[in-house]
Design brief:
alpha/beta, six-stranded mixed sheet, Cell_div_FtsE, ATP hydrolysis activity, four-stranded antiparallel sheet, single chain
C-alpha cells in the first residue's frame, strides 16, 4: 500500500528531516508513528499525501510512484488518501454536513450520491443528529469526528492521521481510537502519528519509531518507548 525507498528530506534552511528512510506498509495495516518532537514524523506523514516531496528517494502509494506523478493525477491519488489533523481544519462557516459533503463536491460527485454518503458517514461517526451544527457549536471530540467523517467520505484506501487525539481529553481520545479501529476493520490502512503513550501501549499495533530522521524501531505489536 505504501512503500518508501531510501527517502531523504532536506529543507531550504538546511534542516534534514529524514535521512535514508525505507519502509513498507501493507494493505489494511494500522501503524503508529512515534518519536521525539522534531524527529521527522510530520514530514514522514506529509510525504504520503504529497504535501511534501522528498529531496531524494522514491515513494509508492496505492501503486503510484509519487515522484513520477503528473500534476493532473495528484487529485486522483489524494482522493484515495484521507487526512486527519490535530486541529481539525473544519471550515467554520459550514455545518458538519456541509464540511463532509464538500469533500465529495470537489470531486464532482452526483448530488444524490453526496447526500446518501454524507448521511452514512455522519451515522458511522455517531453524529447523525449534529449535521446542521456549525463547528463552534460542537465539542472538540465532535469536531474531530466530523474531520474523520470528511476524511473517509470518499472511501479512501489510506488514512493519514497526524496527532488526531492531541487536543482531546483521555475519554474522548479513546472514543476516537475506537472509531479509527472500526474504520481499519472496514478495510482502510491507517498511519497515525502520536505522542499518546497510553493509546500505543494499550492497543498494541505496529510501531515505527523515528529518531533524528532515521527509523530507530519497527515492531509488530510494539510499545511507545518514550517518556513524553
Amino acid at each position: 500500500m505504501i512503500e518508501m525507498q531510501d527517502i531523504y528530506k532536506t529543507y531550504p534552511d538546511g534542516g534534514q528531516a529524514l535521512r535514508g528512510v525505507s519502509v513498507r506498509v501493507e494493505r489494511n495495516e494500522f501503524v503508529y508513528i512515534v518519536g521525539p518532537s522534531g524527529a521527522g514524523k510530520s514530514t514522514f506523514m506529509k510525504l504520503i499525501y504529497r504535501e511534501e516531496r522528498p529531496t531524494k528517494g522514491t515513494i509508492f502509494v496505492n501503486g503510484f510512484n509519487l515522484e513520477k506523478l503528473k500534476q493532473r493525477k495528484i487529485p486522483f491519488v489524494r482522493r484515495n488518501i484521507g487526512v486527519i489533523f490535530q486541529d481539525f481544519k473544519l471550515l467554520p462557516k459550514m455545518t458538519a454536513y456541509e464540511n463532509i459533503a464538500f469533500a465529495m463536491e470537489v470531486i464532482e460527485a452526483p448530488s444524490r450520491v453526496i447526500k446518501k454518503r454524507t448521511q452514512e458517514v455522519l451515522e458511522l461517526v455517531r453524529l447523525k443528529d449534529k449535521g446542521n451544527a456549525y463547528p463552534n457549536q460542537l465539542s472538540g471530540g465532535e469536531q474531530q469526528r466530523v474531520a474523520i467523517a470528511r476524511a473517509i467520505v470518499n472511501n479512501p484506501t489510506v488514512i493519514v492521521a497526524d496527532e488526531p487525539t492531541g487536543n482531546l481529553d483521555p475519554e474522548t481520545s479513546w472514543g476516537i481510537m475506537k472509531l479509527l479501529e472500526e474504520i481499519n476493520f472496514r478495510g482502510a490502512t491507517i498511519i497515525m502519528a502520536t505522542h499518546n503513550k497510553d493509546i500505543v501501549n494499550t492497543m498494541r499495533k505496529r510501531v515505527i519509531a523515528i529518531e533524528n530522521g532515521l527509523i530507530a524501531r519497527d515492531e509488530q505489536r510494539g510499545e511507545y518507548g518514550y517518556e513524553d
